[in-house]
């Protein structure tokens, strides 16, 4: 195969005959390159079985020149052994801290629940106290009203008593005056 690539017949067969042939050949090459690109993109985006078919078709369409030997990728050296003991120890410590934090969160949740219950009890007691305060205020207003009425009634009673006392004094004086006048007449 290597002998064919250096022979003059091979070069003549692969050389374009004229400029028109050159244009057609470059158009064909562009179409072939576009097909290669599409197959390459298809290989990247299609699922695995279709990607294998696409890579096979691409390798068939790929121009192979016998002059260039096919280069295989170099083999990678084996990966060095990884010591996972520090990671496992760190994960164990993390798990212990996680359990401890989970316990703290549960304790805080219970404390918050108890605090919420106490707050609800205080709220109920406050509501009861405000209702009682309102009732006491109404009772106080009622008593103040009664006291005012009693003061007014006492004031009226005092006025009536003064008027009655005045009338009594007047009638006693009138009676004494009349008695004194009639006494002269009678005795």
Helix coverage percent of residues? over 70%
- Count of DSSP E strands? 0
Q: Please indicate the percent range of residues in DSSP E strands (runs of 2 or more).
A: under 5%
Q: Mean of the pLDDT scores?
A: 78
How would the global form be characterised? rod-shaped
Major beta sheet, specifics?
Answer: none
N-to-C series of helices and strands: HHHHH
- Helix-and-strand structural type: mainly alpha
Quaternary organization: single chain
Give the key terms:
mainly alpha; 187 residues
Task: Give a written overview of the molecule.
There is one protein chain. The protein is mostly helical. 83% of the residues lie in helices and 0% in strands. It has a domain at 2-61. The protein is built from five helices and no strands. The longest helix has 102 residues, at 85-186. The N and C termini lie far apart (188 Å). Mean pLDDT is 78; it is low at 1-5 and 18-24.
Furnish the topology, listing elements before pairings:
Blueprint: H1 2-6, H2 8-14, H3 19-45, H4 48-61, H5 85-186
Brief rundown of the structure:
This protein has a domain at 2-61.
């Amino acid at each position: 195969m290597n002998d064919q690539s250096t022979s003059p017949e091979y070069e003549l067969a692969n050389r374009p005959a004229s400029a028109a042939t050159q244009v057609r050949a470059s158009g064909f090459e562009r179409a072939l390159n576009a097909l290669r690109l599409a197959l390459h993109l298809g290989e990247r985006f299609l699922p695995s079985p279709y990607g294998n078919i696409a890579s096979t078709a691409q390798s068939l369409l790929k121009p192979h020149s016998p002059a260039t030997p096919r280069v295989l990728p170099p083999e990678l050296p084996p990966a060095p052994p990884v010591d996972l003991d520090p990671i496992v120890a760190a994960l164990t410590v993390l798990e212990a801290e996680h359990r401890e934090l989970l316990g703290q969160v549960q304790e805080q949740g219970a404390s918050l629940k108890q605090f919420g219950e106490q707050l609800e009890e205080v709220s109920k007691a406050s509501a009861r106290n405000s209702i009682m305060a309102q009732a006491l205020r109404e009772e106080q207003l009622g008593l103040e009203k009664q006291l005012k009425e009693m003061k007014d009634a006492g004031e009226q009673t005092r006025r009536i008593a003064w008027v009655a006392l005045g009338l009594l004094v007047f009638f006693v004086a009138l009676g004494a005056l009349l008695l004194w006048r009639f006494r002269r007449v009678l005795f």
